Amino acid sequence: MKRIPLIAALAVLAATGSARAEEDDATYQARWQDLRHAIFGDRKIEDGAGVITLDAPPRALDAALVPVTIDLPGQAKIKSVYLTIDGNPSPLAGTFHFGPAADTHELKTRVRVDAYTLIHAVAETEDGRLYAAERFVKAAGGCSAPGTKDAQLAMERLGQMKLKRVGDASSSTDAVQLLISHPNYNGMQMDQVTRNYTPARYIQDIKVTRGDALVFDFESDISLSEDPAITFGVLGRKQTPITVEVLDSTKAVFKQNFDIPGNGA
Amino acid sequence: MTSWAAVPVLAALCLFAGSAAGAAPTPFVMTEVAPGIFVRPGIDEDATAENDDAIANIGFIVGDAAVAVIDPGGSEGDGENLRATILAKTQLPIRYVVMTHDHPDHVFGAGAFVEDHPVYVGHVRLRGALAERGDFYRRGLSQILGKGRAGTYEMPTQLVDGSAELDLGGRVLELRAHGAAHTDNDLTVLDRKTGTLWAGDLLFVGRVPSIDGSLAGWLKELDTLKTVPAIRAVPGHGPPVVPWPDAAADEERYFITLATEIRALIAKGGDIETAVTTVGLGERDKWKLFDDYNGRNVTAAFKELEWE
Prior knowledge:
Chain A is mostly beta strands. Chain A has helices at 3-16, 25-40, 151-156; strands at residues 45-47, 53-55, 66-71, 78-85, 92-98, 102-111, 117-125, 130-137, 161-165, 174-180, 203-210, 213-220, 229-234, 242-248, 253-258. In chain A, a hairpin with a 4-residue loop joins strand 14 (242-248) and strand 15 (253-258). In chain B, helix 3 links the parallel strand 5 (94-98) and strand 6. The longest helix of chain B is centred in the middle third of the chain and has 20 residues, at 126-145. Chain B starts with 6 loop residues before the first helix and ends with a helix. At the A-B interface, helix 3, strand 9 and strand 10 of A face helix 4, helix 7 and helix 8 of B.
């Protein structure tokens, strides 16, 4: 429930800044200042150097699928990571809340970008300090663009998931990629048959656990790409399966257990 | 050939055509690729105000009783010029406007034929695709060409699910609706009489293909298409006519290269960011507009193949 006022505030921010392609640096920075106050209030946000870095292509090849990488190389324990696409209609793309089974050193996901914009990743440490990293991305139309290339397939495959190992199996951390088949309709695309806007149907929450231990709880939003993908690190006994539970905005729940391939082999 | 004296007049006309709506349509110089089959090759560029989005291969087929347009063109001007070409060539009615898929460079000339009251023919999924994307495309094209020059798309009034035939009198065209490949609504036309396959954008020659449907699906549809009884094909982009099925080889090699390299990368845990900077680069010198499309193709193909 506590999310609602925040989302409303963000929507107002977005409405004041719509219909633009290129703006000047001051405008981009002003939007970030408004946004950071909406999310973090008056809390101080420090330069992320040494704590958090953010990587994204300077010019997106596909505005509906912009890969984003967040690195957290520091020693301080990270409690949460916030990802904002400042110029999007709903700028807070998602928030990771980490648990004891998380290796927080690297995160990747894919987002929609609706206009030339700054994007930010903000790390919150256990002691409550905030550190931000910033990037500028040139992309346009990622939210309203028709992303689905095969509309029939998108609904047939709804809710299917994959969890793949992407790192070295001998490492103490299991680096894995989670794929969730979901159109993540943001309410801005046109329905193929009715010519009405497709009602928003997007993933709101992704909870990953290993055994009883939380890896992360990710509050997400309409800025995630179709078929969301998240790469992350998992600690814990390699034989213990990883459980993924996804909740979408229609209250549909998709849940699956995974044994990571390569374990115990 | 044009005499030198006429050149300044032509130049003036071109400027006029480019700057104002309502300029007199100008017939194209067509290539008759087989008896009664006329093609206007598009130029290998993306849409600009200067090229009027006349970038796709478009044309028409003439029977004893009627004409079928195959792809009405990329803008209002492109469609009007095609219509003027047909009117200068034959008195027969324009009975069908066949739309090979939903992309603007192929269908935004459709409005130019409304007064002929043709049957607009498309894949069973074309209606949905245009409903979803048509306005988005029109806004984009209007920004490039200028207000009033984009033209309009027309909804298909005859939908093809599987296959269908169009009788032009003494000539029956066989239409086939394909599974997701270049788009999810690709339609091809076979003229059995001359052994000519109008492949639309299932066939790119010279210009790098763009994947807006399915890479694996496209390879599958190509396998089927290679067996149709045709000796020549009209590509959606490239020369007006090419030998069939030999001309599919380049495109097929490109797709297999992408699929092989992406699958290998996925198998070793590689990510999409690495894919866009490494996959397909051996094809770079073999295609026009490679740098404009390869990264996007790799993005689309990676997202598809990671679900295998």
